[in-house]
Amino acid sequence: xxxxxxxxxxxxxxxxxxxxxxxxxxxxxxxxxxxxxxxxxxxxxxxxxxxxxxxxxxxxxxxxxxxxxxxxxxxxxxxxxxxxxxxxxxxxxxxxxxxxxxxxxxxxxxxxxxxxxxxxxxxxxxxxxxxxxxxxxxxxxxxxxxxxxxxxxxxxxxxxxxxxxxxxxxxxxxxxxxxxxxxxxxxxxxxxxxxxxxxxxxxxxxxxxxxxxxxxxxxxxxxxxxxxxxxxxxxxxxxxxxxxxxxxxxxxxxxxxxxxxxxxxxxxxxxxxxxxxxxxxxxxxxxxxxxxxxxxxxxxxxxxxxxxxxxxxxxxxxxxxxxxxxxxxxxxxxxxxxxxxxxxxxxxxxxxxxxxxxxxxxxxxxxxxxxxxxxxxxxxx
Amino acid sequence: xxxxxxxxxxxxxxxxxxxxxxxxxxxxxxxxxxxxxxxxxxxxxxxxxxxxxxxxxxxxxxxxxxxxxxxxxxxxxxxxxxxxxxxxxxxxxxxxxxxxxxxxxxxxxxxxxxxxxxxxxxxxxxxxxxxxxxxxxxxxxxxxxxxxxxxxxxxxxxxxxxxxxxxxxxxxxxxxxxxxxxxxxxxxxxxxxxxxxxxxxxxxxxxxxxxxxxxxxxxxxxxxxxxxxxxxxxxxxxxxxxxxxxxxxxxxxxxxxxxxxxxxxxxxxxx
Lengths: 381, 271
Ligand SMILES: Cc1ncc(C[n+]2csc(CCOP(=O)(O)OP(=O)(O)O)c2C)c(N)n1
Ligand code: SF4
Prior knowledge:
The structure holds 2 protein chains of 2 kinds.
Chain A (H helix, E strand, L loop, with lengths): L7 E6 H12 L1 E6 L6 H13 L3 E4 L3 H13 L3 E6 L1 H17 L3 E9 L5 E5 L4 H6 L8 E4 L3 H18 L2 E7 H5 L1 E6 L43 E3 L13 H16 L2 H4 L2 E4 L6 E4 L3 H15 L4 E6 L1 E3 L3 H8 L4 E6 L6 H7 L6 E5 L8 H11 L1
Parallel strand pairs in A: 2-3, 2-4, 4-5, 5-8, 7-8, 12-13, 12-15, 15-16
Antiparallel strand pairs in A: 1-9, 5-6, 7-14, 11-13
Helix pairs in contact in A: 1-2, 1-6, 3-4, 10-13, 11-12
Chain B lengths: L22 H14 L7 E5 L14 E4 L5 H11 L4 E7 H7 L1 H10 L3 E7 L34 H8 L3 E6 L3 H13 L3 E7 L3 H5 L7 H11 E3 H5 L3 H4 L3 E8 L5 H12 L4
Parallel strand pairs in B: 1-2, 1-3, 3-4, 4-6, 5-6, 7-8
Antiparallel strand pairs in B: 5-8
């Protein structure tokens, strides 16, 4: 697939599309621990990685899988792990380590209902705030979502590219419906795929400072074993990579880590829109719910209601500016989510409470249907 | 005079360890072993967790990763699997390795993945001020066992052997030549090699257990750590309260990264 020089059309599950996208992006390391509904990603990569000179390992738990992923990435391999709710909780401490040490890696969470073991085989979107704030301490994080197998393929590639460009962990949130639905995916030629690879230092080793950054605030980390000996630590550190107790340095470090993402938010944030130009009501939806929202927009229009769709493919950083821009033009927002309003609160904040933000929530493991969305639109408009 | 300086990150001194702490002795023994074996500094990677012992990477001039508490072996597994040509050395404490990291410990041993683990066993949580660890002997005091510890300790080396490690040795920082030799042997083995190193923590362990003088702790190691033939010749009664040191197991077993290499060959790497 990867080397073929014409585009290929295949039927595949969202989870497989994720694995195929990872390979296309250059992923050569995967560490995971089985959990429904994400296991197909590990299973597919356990077959494909050894054939491509890549490394697969099933670890003893998700904490270990996250640690191994970071360790592998430091050698220069593009590395990924995949999990679902309970495993995502276990990964959090080491995700923070990757933020602090600026090690690129991709974490896929195929969301199921929770808390705790919850609904292992049913869809949910209950981890969107955990993805933002799951690890302790002030930090910024990049989180992508996808609504179809095709989208999953593309967003997985983008997740790798963003992590390599900004030297940061990137989280891809899928939901069980997207992960488990089999549908058509068009794979472009490998030569047509934009691939970003992390930079490597060019100066002689004695002049190298791993965490010294230029105006882009992004460090250049040498691959382990390439002749640049340095230290990596989750403690607050200075440009040399060694821990320090200098409080001014600590402040500068935490602020840079946050600024590194914030300053580039225009390059990171992406969304798709449908019929927003003349919309009186905006449906803000992501993941599998965006699919229902798409047909709801069509049905609303048939009924004479000018509905539009805002579908973020990046939810963190949250598209505050883009959502705010709509607030002056529309009568209301509707945020259908398979949780109790985790992103509705962000939309409300983004529009600064200028227009009503309505919610449509399900937490019973059932998908949100187009009809439910249409009914809710009719109720609130 | 042996020149330690070429391996040392002098700019990070003074180190954080208390006077009388044994951790620096392990560092010296490691450096001597690495020097004798001509381990390339560019190809050596030290991975540690969190604790006093886990601060060792700051002082040695090789590639160093100071990771999260208990997880050094998980990170090290990623490093080694991704780039098997690297020489991976893991530094960990008894709490780091056998409490919070216990699961990673038995699984790394089971996989027999090629790395050398230096487990600094000081019987206590040093960095956090002397709480009980899974190796604190029964009856001894800790800040969270002020009436004396009621739990039995792990036999850490035994645990590694049972889990599948191909090389396990126990040594201590009083018998520093043996310490260096055990590290050297471990570095030469292909597989999961553990060197459990008994080391004094006068500050957090000794102080509560009538051994606040580091010299007393060293004397304790001198008198109670018994190696090789000497151990063999002790009666069951004489072994009471003593600790066996030296090589405990040294066998050849399939190693994880080599097995993975064979798997890649079998499935055929596509270009
Ligand atoms: C997840 C987590 N839990 C707890 C701690 C606090 N902590 C730091 S070091 C340590 C114990 C260290 O003891 P040991 O591993 O025996 O090493 P020593 O300091 O004795 O060398 C603990 C509990 C932590 N850093 N992270
Ligand atoms: S507290 Fe104990 S282990 Fe830590 S540096 Fe001091 S003596 Fe060493």
